[in-house]
Each structure stands twice: as structure tokens, then as C-alpha cells.
Write a structure and sequence with these properties.
There is one protein chain. The chain is an all-alpha fold. It has a single domain (1-129), classed as 434 Repressor (Amino-terminal Domain), CATH 1.10.260.40. It is 47% helix and 0% strand. It has helices at 6-16, 21-28, 32-39, 48-58, 84-95, 98-108. Helix 2 (21-28) crosses helix 3 (32-39). The chain is elongated, with a radius of gyration of 16 Å. 11% of the residues are buried. Residues 72-77 and 116-129 have low confidence and may be disordered.
């Protein structure tokens, strides 16, 4: 188990998604200065809605940015090895800009098993919302 550096996770996933700080800020509903503070490690608190929107924008699990949660350094191996075609599809998806990834996500949503559906509501609703 390893404890992840939150600021590095946010910055690395933002860069991987091809987003500027301003673009990420707009997706999350915060200011660009807030994203800058997050990436510099100046994270005092984050609202549940900000965590939910950040995770959705970066396509990451909240466990990566919620302080105090340990997770395995290596993801668990899938039950079945991916085919070369599947690996190429995953690589192409990961290399695509965030806007293209969102289009693919929306297109594939009807084919996702219900337990893996990510409407962002059930898991991340703020209390009282």
C-alpha cells in the first residue's frame, strides 16, 4: 500500500487529459487559482461536489485524492488479459484529448453494466442535496 501525493495526482491526470488549469477549473466549477493551489499542495478542504466534479473531469477514483486513503500501488490484474486490439483501443482513448474521451464515454454509457454506470449522482451526492 502506498499513500499518494494528491497534488501530483491532480496535476498528472490533468496533463494526461490534455486540460489547462482553466479548463479543469471550468469543468469542476472552481477558479483557476483554486486548481493552481491544489496542484501546489495548498489543499485545506475540498467540498464533496468539487471532489466529485474533479474525479469526473479527470476520470479518476475519489480514492486517489481523498486524504488518508491507502490503495494498492499496482492495480489488481484483470481476470482476463486484454487482446492486442483492446490494448490499442485503451491506448488510443488515453492519448485522446479529454473532449474526445467524453464523447466516447457518452457513446459507450448505454453498454456499461449497471453496477459500473457512472452518472456521478449516487456515489457523490452532497449531503442535503
Amino acid at each position: 500500500m502506498t499513500n499518494i501525493d494528491i497534488k501530483a495526482v491532480i496535476k498528472n491526470h490533468r496533463n494526461r487529459a490534455g486540460l489547462t488549469m482553466k479548463e479543469l477549473a471550468d469543468l469542476v466549477g472552481v477558479s483557476e487559482a483554486t486548481v493552481s493551489r491544489w496542484e501546489s499542495g495548498n489543499i485545506a478542504t475540498m467540498k464533496h461536489s468539487q471532489i466529485a466534479n474533479l474525479c469526473k473531469a479527470l476520470h479518476i477514483s475519489p480514492a486517489l485524492i481523498v486524504p488518508g486513503i491507502d490503495y494498492p500501488a499496482e492495480p489488481s490484474a484483470p481476470d482476463q488479459e486484454l487482446s492486442d486490439h483492446d490494448k490499442n483501443m485503451v491506448a488510443a482513448y488515453n492519448a485522446a484529448p479529454a473532449s474526445t474521451q467524453r464523447i466516447v464515454d457518452v457513446a459507450l454509457e448505454p453498454f456499461m453494466p449497471k453496477e459500473h454506470s457512472d452518472d456521478g449522482k449516487a456515489d457523490f451526492e452532497e449531503e442535503g442535496a
